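Now for one specimen:
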Amino acid sequence: MIDIANLAGVSPSTVSLVLRGKSAASPETCKKIFTIAEQYGYSAATLNITKQNKELTFAKIVKHGNILNPDHFLFVNDYIDGIISQAGKAGYGVIVDSFDLRTTSIHHILSKLTNYASSGIIILATELAPEDLKQFESLTIPFVFLDAYYDFLPYS
């Protein structure tokens, strides 16, 4: 998706949203993205466009435990409660999972997130560094990072 975004001059999240029919991008931008996606061999099957899954995934990822630890469970639970509440109002269910990079690989996490086949992923990235965030670019499911911001990365 990064290649398509670079060629189209948009963010990877815009590409993901456009390919799933969820974007408010201009018709010209949408057409450009679809054309580039076709050139890269993407199809409705590979993009999972036709699937109308009403499920979101919330993934808490711990890297070192200095911030996301038992003292912060209330903070994390407030995020989860709010997401479940708002998703429910929109007719979505929420899968909640927790990962620890001290005991599992990022590749395992990506595989598991992909296997959920959610229509979107919310990643609590409080402890993640820029190089960690870049690993998620391979996801073909729309995703957003919560509680992480680096102005030099193409995520909004």
About this structure: The beta strands are 55-62, 93-100, 120-124, 143-146. The helical segments are 2-8, 12-19, 27-39, 44-47, 73-89, 106-115, 130-134. The first helix runs from residue 2 to 8.
